[in-house]
Amino acid sequence: MADEMVREVQKWLNATYTGVEGYEPVTEDGNTGWNTIYALIEGLQHELGISPVVPNFGETTYAYYEQQITPNWGSGLSPNIIRLVQGAFWCKGMPQGIGPGAFDGIYSADLAYAVTDLKIQAGFTNPSSILSATWAKALFDMAQFVLIDDPKVREMQQYLNVNYVGYTGIMPTDGIYQRATNEAIIYGFQAELGLSTEEATGSFGPTTSSLYNTAYQSGLSTHLIMLIQFALYANMKEFWESGGAPSIDFTGDLDVPTRAGLGEFQRFMQLMPVDSESPDLRTVLSLVQSNGDWTRDFLGSDTSLQLKEQQVLDLLQFGVYYVGRYLTGTVGNDYRPKNLTREEAEMILDHGMKIIPIYQDNYPTASYYNYEQGQRDARAAIYAAGALGIPDASYIYFAVDFDAQGEDIQHNVIPYFWGIQNTFRDGIAGLHYQAGVYGTRNVCTQIHNTVRTQRSYVANMSSGWSGNLGFSQPLDWAFDQFYEYSYASVDAFDFVAVSGLDDAVERLDEPFVMDEDYWIDQTNWDWFKNLSVTIDGEPVTLWSGFGIDIEVSAHSEISSTEDSTFLLSITDGELSAESTEFIDNVLGADLSMVATAKINEFCTGISNGTIAVYIVINEEGKKTIRVEINFPESSTNDVKVITSVEIEITMDFDTPTGSSIMDSALEGVKNLITSIPPGLIAAVVLLLAVVGIALLPAAGAGATVGGLAAVLLALLADFGQTKDRDD
Predict the structure, then answer these.
(1) Strands, E assignment, 119-170
(2) Angstrom distance (rounded) from CA 111 to CA 81
(3) For residue 96, how far is the Cα from the chain centroid?
(4) Rounded to whole angstroms, how far apart are CA atoms 664 and 670?
């Protein structure tokens, strides 16, 4: 809901500072956000004589403010300075319910009260009404100083402000445990251990660890115990709430509830060895940073290496009994295969180890994740796991291997896991695997709470990710990845703690072997399922008109591929490493990423096979792209099955279609093709094949010219091709 006082502030900012070098006008909508805060900062900088202005309250702004405003605070300041401070209070909604008085540029008792109220809300008692640079930096910010969430977290935030402001500045006191709160606790440790503000880093490194260990051996101070209680509460709050147990009080004493809580935390995190119910260094490291102490005991590992027997023996010698392995895919610029093979799996199990199945075959960005992609990845995981003989109902952990923020999780990652959950629920050929989550603490917890996944594989090794800082360990954690290492013949593997919630894979069943036409019912090829295609019959028209013709036919015999422009191989529902590398070499990095993704979507469900692509001349003399998918022959007891599907796509780029949007789309495709240097026939044919493949889901019954054109325009945008249209 718009706030009229905020709108008034925004109007004044634009009227006063538009034209100032660096100033960005703000939308006058009455809604406080970072853009309004930035405009206030830029206005302040202009009044301080800084040019050009920038959207950041940095060291220069701080120094100029401290020199010019702090000593002269009060009625002697210019009206514009006073208006900027008043505006900042109105945008922050403080003092709560009444504001800082009029927005008039006149220093008043109301504004003085607003300053003291800000300091009181931050935790200080009997404060002055002078707004120094330290407080101005907190004011000209989106940080909140009114209670939003947990009173106990607010209590610790206020304590941290009062005791460690020289190390942390003024931090929010909104009751939300967050990155800043977590870092402030570490700064508190460093301050109590004797590190100066110049020496303190906000990171619990070797120096801090050594100093803490000395303090622990000689006896912890009240202040250090208070900080331990803060960190313990933040880590165990959800655990205690889930079990209906009371939390601890912040007493600064290692009392019975605190010691009991430390013991619960040690057992929950599987910390070994530790001083039971005591805040030893190993326990404190796990309280303040997600990766904890890398020297602690653990039972699991994960690796992208296709393991040989000697490597398995070396892992066993190192004390590892679980190994996370990828179901599909490649790794690195050389596309080294990382997928688990049946032979490797049997060898791992024969040596008494257990397997943790992981699915990660994607680009780690938010845009990859959506509901449909979740369905596709779930199907690919089922085929790969089934072919290996992974037992039904096993957990498969799907990776979200980037620092997903709140909006990424809500708009991308959650729908992605709903796609997985629904596909797993429906199952394929009687296989109903269970979805696990690999990701930050925040990702794992949110997916558990919304999608109701039951097991998490926590990426705690990425301790600097915002999704780990300020978040407690997920209650459903099964595996905890916390350190990367090399040992003997194993070049690279991760240390993984094991909670015992997931037994992992201890045996293999008979591999699931699908008929060569079975995949059709399991793909996302709805356009094909709805066609009345007769094996070895005449081609069926999928779409005809507006410059595009698509025909499909199915065959019981594999066709010769000798005359193809190029041949791509499919392994376990996706392009092989060699084919991916070929596309990369032909198209270059920018175009190949999109092309590979589109072809892999097309391949989902094909266990093994090839895609042959031809350029031919049809009966009307028009160039046609033929995409031919071949599947290995199998014993069928003389029953015809589909072993080859041919798709012919013809596009007329020169004749007007009668649809302005389709004309624009086809012109864009033509421009994309003609941008390829002369002589690179394979690149042209490959791009045309990708365009044709992308059209298939939108074609068929119920398709519209607008729908097909929209697909083409979206694909062009993915390829970085945009065209302004006025129709």
Answers:
(1) none
(2) 12
(3) 36
(4) 10
Which token pair is 36?
């309004």
Last residue in a domain, options 95, 125, 146? 146
The span from the first CA to the last CA of the chain, in angstroms, equals 36
314 and 283 belong to one structural domain: no
The single-letter DSSP state of residue 428 is B
The residue count of the chain comes to 727
The 3-class secondary structure across 515-569, one letter per residue, is CCCHHHHHCCCHHHHCCCCCECCCCEEEEEECCEEEEEEEECCCCCCCCCCEEEE
What the block records as the tokens of 18 is 């538009």
8 with 65, same domain?
A: yes
| Average pLDDT score over the chain | 91
* pLDDT for residue 637: 39
Residue-by-residue DSSP string for 293-361: -TTS---EEE-SS---HHHHHHHHHTT--EEEEESS-EETTTTEE-B--HHHHHHHHHTT-EEEEEE--
Q: Is the dihedral of CA 703, 704, 706, 709 positive or negative?
A: positive
DSSP 21: T
Tokens matching residue 119: 């300091």
User: Quick one: pLDDT at residue 521?
Assistant: 57
One domain, residues 194 and 127: no
Residues 291-309 pLDDT 10s: 999 999 999 999 999 999 9
542: domain range?
525-718
Find where tokens 């392994």 sit: 571
- Please tell me the total count of domains within the chain: 4
- Residue 511, C-beta contacts closer than 8 angstroms, at least 6 positions apart: 342, 386, 387, 388, 389
Confidence of residue 333 (pLDDT cuts 50, 70, 90): confident
Indicate if 351 and 407 belong to the same structural domain. yes
The sign of the torsion formed by the CA atoms of 188, 182, 62, 130 equals: negative
Torsion of CA 581, 586, 592, 595, to 10 degrees: -100
Q: Does residue 508 lie within any of the structural domains?
A: no
Task: Detail the DSSP E strand segments found in 556-707.
Answer: 566-571, 574-575, 608-617, 623-630, 644-651
Same domain as 274, residue 304: no
- Cα–Cα distance, 302 to 356 (Å, whole number): 8
Nearest to 703 by CA among 595, 523, 535, 548: 548
Among 603, 609, 612, 611, smallest CA distance to 573 is for 603
Q: Is the whole-model pTM more than 0.90?
A: no
Q: Quick one: which of 353, 463, 488, 375 has its CA closest to 424?
A: 375
Q: What is the mean pLDDT of residues 22-26?
A: 97
Tokens of 647: 């798709």
* Cα 548 from Cα 623, distance rounded (Å): 12
At residue 87, does pLDDT exceed 90? yes
Helix, strand counts (H, E) of the chain: 24, 17
622 CB contacts (<8 Å, ≥6 apart)?
A: 650, 652
